Amino acid sequence: MKQKKHRYIFSKTVLALTMVFFYLPIIYTVIFSFNDSKSLSKFSGFSLQWYEKMFNNSDLMDAVFYTIMIAVLATIISTIAGTFTAIGLSRSNKVLRAVMEQINDLPVMNPDIVTAIGLLMFFSSLAIKKGFVTLLLSHIMFCIPFVILSIMPKLRSLDPNILDAALDLGCTPAQALIKVIVPQISSGILSGALIAFTMSFDDFVISYFVTGNGVNNISIMIYTMTKRVNPTINAVSTLIIAIITIVLVAANIAPAIKGKKDTAADNG
């Protein structure tokens, strides 16, 4: 009995320390974004001056705009492309599927710096001017493998005859895809979209190598700001935390609301 109690206390202690390790820096950043002084170690009073300076900084606001725009576009395009690719692979022969899955794993396992240099050389060899387009294409490229990895397990769990059954019951291939397959793998699609959004929003290394012409995202802008003490970084970081939190909350609430509506409709 005592041994079980000790194990319980130990596990709870480890969990508590882990949570502190993960969330204390985030809480620290949020608190000091409201600090009245430039100090990053002593809280001298409440103030919104760093948020005011952040919103008055046109370069920083442009970086926020580009970050959100790139992340949203990359998420939408990579999710659509990854979904169709995963469905196509699930209907392919085993050899082709195995080869393509191994190829899909390469960008995930490849170090970002290697991918960044490869993309830089690729765009340079084609004489493509670096800027918004190259940044967007690069984000789409490294997001698609994560979408495919999120969807493939869901496709493997499906009844292999479900598509044939839908076709036998009168569905066209497009209807079978949209009304039968996609709803069954919607959780995998959502997971892949969230991972793609987070990867795009957070990326620095690849973005740093493939962007140009004044097109910067938040990670690049923060990197340039870290060369000197600037509490505006805390305000920017808090804004990022708020955006990511809103996206995660919305992604978790939406299925719950939909489930309640479906249950109410079935009961009605």
Describe this structure in words.
This protein is mainly α and 268 residues long. It has one domain (49-251): Orthogonal Bundle (MetI-like fold). It has 12 helices and no strands. It has helices at residues 2-32, 49-56, 58-90, 94-109, 112-125, 132-156, 162-168, 173-184, 186-202, 205-210, 218-225, 232-267. Helix 2 packs across helix 12, helix 4 crosses helix 6 and helix 6 runs antiparallel to helix 9 (186-202). The chain starts with a helix and ends with a helix.
Mean pLDDT: 85
- Envelope shape: globular
Beta strands, count: 0
Number of domains: 1
The value of Rg in angstroms is: 23 Å
Instruction: Briefly note the structural class of the backbone.
Output: mainly alpha
Proportion of β residues? Answer: under 5%
**Order of SSEs, N→C?**
HHHHHHHHHHHH
Query: What is the CATH third-level topology name?
Result: MetI-like fold
Give me the oligomer status.
Answer: single chain
Unreliable stretches, pLDDT < 50, 5 or more residues?
none
CATH class: Mainly Alpha
Helix content: over 70%
Terminal CA distance reads 50 Å
Major sheet details: none
CATH architecture classification? Orthogonal Bundle
Number of helices: 12
Q: Identify the CATH homologous superfamily.
A: MetI-like
